[in-house]
Write a structure and sequence with these properties.
Layout (H helix, E strand, L loop, with lengths): L3 H27 L2 H4 L6 H18 L4 H11 L11 H9 L7 H12 L1 H14 L1 H12 L2 H8 L4 H20 L3 H15 L7 H13 L9 H24 L9 H36 L5 H23 L13 H19 L1 H25 L19 E5 L2 H14 L6 E4 H4 L1 E2 L8 E2 L4 H11 L3 E7 L6 H10 L7 E7 L5 E7 L6 H5 L5 H10 L1
Parallel strand pairs: 1-2, 1-5
Antiparallel strand pairs: 3-4, 5-7, 6-7
Helix pairs in contact: 1-6, 1-7, 1-8, 1-9, 3-5, 3-18, 6-9, 7-8, 7-10, 7-16, 8-16, 8-17, 9-17, 10-11, 11-13, 12-15, 13-23, 14-15, 14-16, 14-17, 15-16, 16-17, 20-21
Amino acid sequence: MIQPQHRSMAWSALGGYVLALLAGALVLIYLHAYQAGFSGADEPAHFLNGVFISNYLRHHAGTNPMAFAVEYYLHYPKISIGHWPPAYYGLLGVLLLALPATPQAAFLINLLISALPAAALGWALAWLAGRRIALAGCAVYALTPLAVESQAFFMLDQALTACCAAAAIAWLAYTRRPGWARAGLFAALCAGAVLVKGNGWLLVLMPLFHMLLTRGWRLLALPHLYGAGLAAAAVVVPWYWLTASIAADGFNYQAGLPYAWKALAANLYTLLRNLGYAGAPLALFAVVVEYRQRLAAPQRWAVVSLAISLILATLALQSLVPADIDDRYLAPALPGYTLLAALGVAHVGAAIRGSPGRAAGILLTLAMLAPGVAHLAQRGAKVDMRAADLPAPESPSVWIIDGSSGAEGALIAELAVRDPGLRHYAVRASKLLAVSDFMGRRYALKYADERQVLEELRRLGARYVVLVRLDNAAAFPHSEQLSAALQLPESPFRRVLTLPHRYRAGVTEVYQADAEADIGAVRGLGMPVKGGALTRSAR
């Protein structure tokens, strides 16, 4: 028979998940993310990586996947498997065999995955503090600024956070009853997290912090973790060995103490802002109370210390690995931080008791909700660049796409999903007309003036040139060159579409010329140097 407490935990997990789904749906609609689609720099790449795998499974299964990846990139140069690991894209590719390959389908998948940590949070809080606190904590979590952004943008951090929450539960189960099956489950979830995104390496640190806090060093004498860890490493390490130089292109800092201190301060401030000035004192209060009671209630302390360990592991990794300083990198720590803060509310209520205690709990919960609600109210809507309204040519054609990185990606993704047979070619103006690294640094123009730019368009046999002007402004110096080239008297291009953006100021302009694609010239633009190196290494 299911124990009442276990039944309450299960219902709280389900209730927390439903609350997170409802909050996420509100965000998608309120910020027009569902309607607008992609606009962030990385969103289209994540989506197109999944579309690429779906296309391979549907039409090319059994052929050389690396050869197909090269071919796909030559047509639609926005796939980026290698810079990011493949696990989430594999899941997305399988799902897109059944779902339409559209931004809306991607956002629905994202919604379902982003809500999963709330289920883990509801489960843990129901056991520690009861169903009411569990649901209140889930509501707070689902409306934090980080959670709002995770619903508005299609990224990897949502899937990573879900993997980390699942791995934390698996680790807790292993510490209570060590065995090969539980060690294997934990190792598999760790490998999955690392193969979703490199930040998943924090799960190597989490058990160390947990054993330190719970004095569980006896686990190091058992063989299970070593065997399971070696099996996971056999899957993960070859991928990172192969792609390390590609992923390092995205690092924006140098490792060292200056970066560590800067990153630690910024990351602590991110956590502070997400639950407001009430969250941190409440979390600390909960830790103090639970620490004092740890000997009398070791199982409670094991759960609390697990939340602490997730936070510490996330902070440690993000302060040591100089990839970047970005709020979303703290996403794996947010469920643990919210758990501690919600538990702090329960302890405040227990200390005050009666109606005053309940009133204090409500006020403190509202105080933690305030940053997310304010963020949602102040944040601008996502922009719809009207990618779906691009023309649909019949014969093979070359498209030059110009705009911000997100704009280029959004339009390339739209063209790619229309063209599963790979008949057309999209060319990024940022790569055709300028030179820069993966992160857009060391930028320099390739051509001296607009006449040389026009000559390059003619050489490629470009039929369409699409200019995306967010806030009605050119994105880069090469964007101005390209726009001027189209206006030259000798230019064969004529504007055929002007598409005002929805929800934000801006316009997408489509220019067309009567030109025949020079396929050899377009393919001659080739792969990036490191992408080609990956392809050669994998053969």
